[in-house]
Amino acid sequence: MIRWFYSCLMWLAQPLLKRKLLRRSQQEPGYAQHLPERFGHYDQAVPPHSGPTVWLHAVSLGETRAAAVLIAALRAQWPHMRLLLTHGTATGRAEGQKLLATGDLQAWQPWDTPAAVQRFLAHFRPQLGILMETEVWPNLVLGCQLQAVPLVLVNARLSDKSRQQAQRLAWLARPAFTALTAVWAQTQADAQRLQSLGAKVEGVMGNLKFDATPNPTQVMQGRAWREQCPQPVVMLASSREGEEQALLDILKRFWLPVQTHQAQDATDSVVLKVQWLVVPRHPQRFDAVATLIQSQGFAVQRRSAWPASGPNPTAGQPTIWLGDSLGEMALYYGLADVALLGGSFEPLGGQNLIEAAACACPVVMGPHTFNFAEAAEKALAAGAAQRSANLAQAVDRACELSLSDNRLLVARESARHFAQSHQGAAQRLAAALMPFLAE
């Protein structure tokens, strides 16, 4: 009865979903492409294949990049497999296209109605389903169970906040987690929270994102551009709504007195010695953030308008560099001396700091890192990150670190070592999944 009620709600929500996707497509055209796939209708035929079809679901950009290393490990051990890659976001699907080999398939995740799930499974007939990190949908799990398709959750994480939310909906969440064939968690704390919801946790494998190698060409390009800049570069990385305004409010307090020739003390002056770079988390906000920067009295140089020689050093009117491109975080981390961790200065749980560490870019984060709690604590212990109580304190610390050559060198090396010392999850997961493919 409860699942029937949930399924009815999901069925009734389909027109709202379609309208939302079409509205989103005005800024990101990918959302309007292959729209019928969202509801289990496909125009692509599935040709016969001699090996197993492995379905991997990576909802967004971050999960897709993490999945890349697991896919490579699976191909190495099972070269005849056919990959079916599904996503929920346009950025994830665009990134996923880079991972497809000849004969592989790609589609949108089916909306969680029994009919859409049934059509999805009947069309693609996967031998194994792999969900990345958090994507547990009740009808999707039940559909796989009914069709005898093993469905596993890998690189699994569950914050305490998400666990509490799931427990409030235990009548829906617990059957879904219990019906998963197997779960491999990132950390022991994740494993315990998942087990509290009935998940069959088979082991703790670490985080796949440590195994992802940043694009070396991008890192080198970013560092070459950094060499041309006379000032240190501090980046607000993967910023969320509200954080850009908060940063600009802080910067205005330091810059405006200079414009009116008022004196500055030594603490304030460090902010004036830094070039600021802002990289929003979501591409649909690029234009809005550019407008916001200009409305606050700053000039803006957008990455999309940079010449091949890189951003121009600025003088006179304070200028913010804006990273308005997709798939270039390695370039931005190579360009930055220090990064402020977006999503951690508002109660949003923080963004992934592992890519910054892999690029040897130390991080200053705020108080809210519950989405990546263990990685944040390990980064702190390793000297790859610092924690600040608020954004104003983080700005001071990031500026001071970027201006201290010796401290910055130590922090860079600590970040690099932290990233390298936690690798290996991809090989461990590939070995754990082999029995399913052998069957």
TrEMBL record:
It is found in: Cell membrane. GO terms for molecular function: transferase activity. Its main location: membrane. It comes from the Bacteria. The keyword Transmembrane helix does not apply. Gene3D superfamilies: 3-Deoxy-D-manno-octulosonic-acid transferase, N-terminal domain, Glycogen Phosphorylase B. Residues 34-212 form the 3-deoxy-D-manno-octulosonic-acid transferase N-terminal domain. It catalyses: lipid IVA (E. coli) + CMP-3-deoxy-beta-D-manno-octulosonate = alpha-Kdo-(2->6)-lipid IVA (E. coli) + CMP + H(+). The keyword Kinase does not apply. Keywords: Cell membrane, Lipopolysaccharide biosynthesis, Membrane, Transferase. Its EC number is 2.4.99.12. Belongs to the glycosyltransferase group 1 family. PANTHER family: 3-DEOXY-D-MANNO-OCTULOSONIC ACID TRANSFERASE, MITOCHONDRIAL-RELATED, 3-DEOXY-MANNO-OCTULOSONATE CYTIDYLYLTRANSFERASE. Involved in lipopolysaccharide (LPS) biosynthesis. Catalyzes the transfer of 3-deoxy-D-manno-octulosonate (Kdo) residue(s) from CMP-Kdo to lipid IV(A), the tetraacyldisaccharide-1,4'-bisphosphate precursor of lipid A. This is 3-deoxy-D-manno-octulosonic acid transferase. It comes from Rhodoferax lithotrophicus.
